[in-house]
Structures are given as structure tokens and as C-alpha cells.
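Budget justification aside, the reviewers requested a transparent look at the raw inputs and outputs of the sequence design task funded under Objective 1. We therefore reproduce one unedited record. The lines immediately below are the C-alpha cells for a 105-residue chain.
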């Protein structure tokens, strides 16, 4: 599943902007040829990709949109398990958040 195309446009744009900023901080510059979505160090498996999803899910849920929070987090645990491992604290935290928002949906 493509984590960039499954969310509303503004959230996808924010995620792309955050990835570009990660890349700029890492390299000290950014050009259109350094697109982080295709850069091997800053592509969809970069750890910085997971945090914005968790934050967006949190704020969606806090604003009363528990279903939106669930939708934001549904595929994230599988990606985190693949990249970080089943027992990683971030993976476990995402699973707890997903369970919490599902119970509120």
C-alpha cells in the first residue's frame, strides 16, 4: 500500500514536505533532483515517515474523527513491523493507538 496516495491531498503534501525537510537537514541542500520519495535513504521506509502518520491520527481522533484516525493508522503497523520489527516500541505504540481509536470509532 502506498502511504502517500491513500490520504487527503493536504496530509499527503505535508508528509512530502516533511520528507523533503528531512532530506535537506541530512544533506544540507535540496534540489528537485533530490526527491526524497525516490531517494534510497529518505524513501517510504525512512523512519521519519511513520511519525507524521501517528501525529495526524492523534489530531484526527482528538478532533472527534476516530474513524479518520483508524484510517490513518490501519496500514502503519504492518509497515513498521516490516521496517522496525514486531517488538519495536514504535510498532507497539502504534498498535495501542490503533486499538484505542478503534474502540472510540
Amino acid at each position: 500500500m502506498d502511504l502517500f496516495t491513500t490520504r487527503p491531498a493536504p496530509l499527503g503534501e505535508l508528509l512530502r514536505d516533511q520528507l523533503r525537510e528531512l532530506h535537506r537537514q541530512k544533506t544540507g541542500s535540496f534540489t528537485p533532483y533530490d526527491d526524497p520519495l525516490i531517494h534510497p535513504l529518505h524513501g517510504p521506509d525512512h523512519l521519519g515517515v511513520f511519525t507524521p502518520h501517528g501525529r495526524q491520527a492523534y489530531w484526527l481522533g482528538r478532533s472527534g474523527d476516530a474513524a479518520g484516525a483508524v484510517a490513518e493508522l490501519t496500514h502503519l503497523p504492518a509497515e513498521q513491523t516490516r521496517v522496525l520489527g514486531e517488538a519495536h516500541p514504535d510498532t507497539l505504540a502504534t498498535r495501542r493507538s490503533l486499538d484505542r481509536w478503534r474502540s472510540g470509532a
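Confidence is low (pLDDT under 50) at residues 1-5, 36-40. The chain is about 60% helix and 0% strand. Computational costs for records of this kind are itemized in the attached budget.
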